[in-house]
Design a protein that fits this description.
This protein has two domains: 5-100, Aminopeptidase, CATH 3.40.630; 101-261, 3-Layer(aba) Sandwich (Aminopeptidase), CATH 3.40.630.30. It contains six helices and 13 strands. It has helices at residues 56-69, 83-91, 109-112, 133-149, 216-230, 245-252, and strands at residues 5-8, 14-21, 24-29, 32-41, 47-53, 74-79, 95-106, 123-126, 175-180, 183-193, 196-207, 235-241, 257-267. A 13-stranded mixed β-sheet has the order 1-2-3-4-5-6-13-7-12-11-10-9-8, with helices on both faces. It is elongated. The two termini are 26 Å apart. The relative contact order is 0.18. This is Ribosomal-protein-alanine N-acetyltransferase. Pfam families: Acetyltransf_1. Residues 123-268 form the N-acetyltransferase domain.
Length: 268
């Protein structure tokens, strides 16, 4: 699309940047592609960037070109342990917006202490894959509206994006739900990790605001972890926003340990 821009630097790297598509930039040095930059727009409208470069000069040139071409604010997500990436993005002006912890969660009830975590009176747990789509979508809309009215869906895990029609649930086979008086009042989403069929990741636990603080989230977690344990899965992964004190307390209370963390960075 755009013509190449040659940008020699103090480190002797002469890198030409070309925007080759609406969402892609290439960095070329000595006729070799030494870096690629990409954009992706989330359903909530935010623009996320990613850059894969051979060396720092290529990264900086790509970042400069992309930032010059794109409207702000802009976002990216990095592994917090990747200090090199953090330095590069922050050199381009990005700052930390939020942290998401990745927990390793034991499934053995003798470790979690969830063996006796029964649902509250009148609440039943519907196993993963058994939820009816209509009531699940109705609960999804209620929870989404409640989140938007408080912290905003942008504070939810990156793996739980809303779709353009406002619906976030797309596959009932990934959800366990809590039911009461003929309607769904809570949900837990669990997925299989790509290329690791024995690995499960808990993406989201959400309870309707008028049914919270009754033990429903704990009962959902007990059910799902117990099912994993009976299938021979010893640990699961979970994504938790650092600022979600209730979720942090829930997982750490069952023996989950922090294994890693991701940072969402923003350039305003």
């Amino acid at each position: 699309m755009d013509s190449a821009r040659s940008t020699p630097g103090m480190d002797d790297h002469a890198v030409a940047i070309t925007r080759v598509a609406e969402t892609q930039w290439h960095a070329v040095e000595d006729d070799l592609t030494v870096g690629r930059g990409y954009t992706s727009r989330r359903p909530d409208g935010r623009m996320f960037l990613s850059i894969d470069a051979w060396h720092g000069a290529a990264f900086d040139r790509l970042a400069d070109a992309m930032l010059a071409d794109l409207p702000k604010p802009l976002y990216t997500v990095i592994d917090e342990a990747d200090l090199d990436s953090a330095v590069k993005w922050k050199r381009s002006g990005f700052t930390t917006r939020r942290r998401e912890w990745e927990y390793l969660v034991p499934t053995d009830p003798q470790i979690t202490g969830l063996g006796s975590a029964l649902p509250p009176a009148g609440v039943t747990i519907v196993a993963v894959g058994r939820a009816e789509k209509g009531p699940l979508l109705a609960l999804d809309r209620v929870i989404r509206d409640e989140v938007e009215a408080t912290v905003g869906w942008r504070e939810m895990p990156a793996e739980v994006p809303p779709h353009p029609d406002g619906v976030t649930t797309t596959d009932p086979s990934e959800y366990a739900v809590a039911a009461q008086a003929g309607e769904y009042v809570g949900l837990l989403r669990v997925t299989t990790v790509s290329r690791r069929p024995r690995c499960r990741r808990i993406r989201l636990i959400a309870i309707r605001s008028d049914r919270r603080r009754r033990g429903i989230a704990r009962a959902l977690l007990a059910h799902v972890l117990g099912s994993m344990h009976r299938c021979g899965i010893e640990t699961a992964w979970a994504d938790v926003n650092e600022s979600n004190e209730a979720a942090v307390a829930l997982f750490e209370g069952v023996g989950a340990r922090r294994a890693s963390s991701n940072l969402e960075l923003v350039l305003r």
